[in-house]
Cytochrome P450 monooxygenase CYP5012A1
Amino acid sequence: MNILIQALLLIAVLLLLMILFFVNKYYIKTRSLMRYYENQGINNSYYFPLVGKYKRMLDSIKEHGDCMHYYKQLLTNQPDCKYTVTNLAHNVCIYFYDLELLNQLYKCSDLVKHQFGVEIFKQVMAGLVFNEGEEHSRKRKILSQAFHYQLLQNMIPQLSQIYEEFFEKIRNKRVSDCIMMGQEIVAESIVRLFFSNSFQGLKFKGKTMTEAVSGIIERVGSMAKSASYALFGKICFSFGQMASVKKDLKQIKEIYKEIITNRINSTNLEELQHKKQKDLIDYLIESKGISKIESEESITIDQIIEEFVTFQVAGLDSSGHTLGMVLYYLCIFPEKLVEEIEQTIKTPDDLNTESIKKMKYLGAFVNEVLRYYSVADQIFPRTCNKDIQIGDLIIKKGTQVNVGIIENHYNPKYFKDPHQFNPMRWLDGSLDKLNSYAFNPFSSGKHNCIGQHFAQLEIKVGIIKFLQEFDLELDQDYKFILKFSFLTEPLNPIPITFKSKKQ
Ligand code: HEM
């Protein structure tokens, strides 16, 4: 009996200690650090146990059908608000909006990306996004070749072909989830940008390679929001779901490696010089940017695979969601785009970078979708690796900082009537002197989006191709609610019928 009581007492003490540990870590310490920033003048402060900022999003969905409602209203109501402070689990995070402070933040070199909320994505993409310093600059220089003007120009026929292949599947049909379709299109375009047709027909566990990688991103996204990650952090990475994700990814990379190695070994440099449609691997082979040994100018095959996976993870969701949303906006905001397309693109050969540049309304429409929808409402949080000062604010080592991208897109100081979808605002001269931090969908500074020109090109080519081919019809009873997953996305999949214009 005595032993039983002693055991129960021991368990009770252990439980109490655990509760004290969690209360201290997740409440006392977090709140006291937040108060430190409130005392320095951050008036907009919001704490909620564990989920922090996400609670605001959940409330916004319930009350307004838009997870971003609160954030879109913030600067509309307080255009001069410089920053807010909130929490994510036990982490305190400051969001910056003031353009001068953003300038200082982007230049600050004492920020790292390896902390809570971010490290989980590092498990599946160890490339550019998470490289820092010298390594980052060196790889960024080499990989920028993927987005060289010439390569992007060469991509247009490839992109057209990808769209045409999809059109055969959807002609006169109702697609029940246009974001998913957007992701499939984008996934295919990233594969062809890097590797042309090298992966065609390849399967992993019965799925195409892009489906397999998309599945991995989805699994990691749901783990990032799980209670076990919020409570136990990195410890989760060695077990269960994450262990199986890592195993799958390792096998996928092995398959990629074999194909790329064979391709490099069988490339004839002379023939390559005359090849018309080159992909990134061709450019890297030509410039000796890829080799068995890593050097100042080159990366290894393993690294290029790592980068490919990183590009897929970074590009697939963001561009795929934007493409799906573009189709939605095309349905609800009937536009003059059809007219501009008909006037500019008369034959398939007219579709090139020059004609796309000439289509001013197309550019304005895409800008307006990037502003209004803002798929990336923020960047990956950065953690201060020492005490820093931004403006008058002294920020303690360990605090997370972030950029409020979407908040500024709804600031009336920069965008008149910000809650109105109005592409014309980009053409009436009012935004000619707009500060680039105010419209920042691809972020800024050294980690800005390397794929931004490619993303805009594939979306513009997509709009042209879709509107040339189809009349788009959104289900009449469709209800748009914006939720937050890894990125912002519609709660109800977007259903559109693609009626062929060639009856
Ligand atoms: C509409 C589409 C897209 C949007 C809105 C977008 C947005 C962003 C943002 C906000 C960042 C900064 C993230 C941070 O610093 O934490 C970023 C980085 C990045 N994006 Fe994109 N992106 C898009 C499409 C793409 C595409 C298509 C690719 C690849 C083909 C891509 C590849 C990358 C990479 C590799 C980085 C990391 C760059 C670095 O750290 O140097 N993105 N993107």
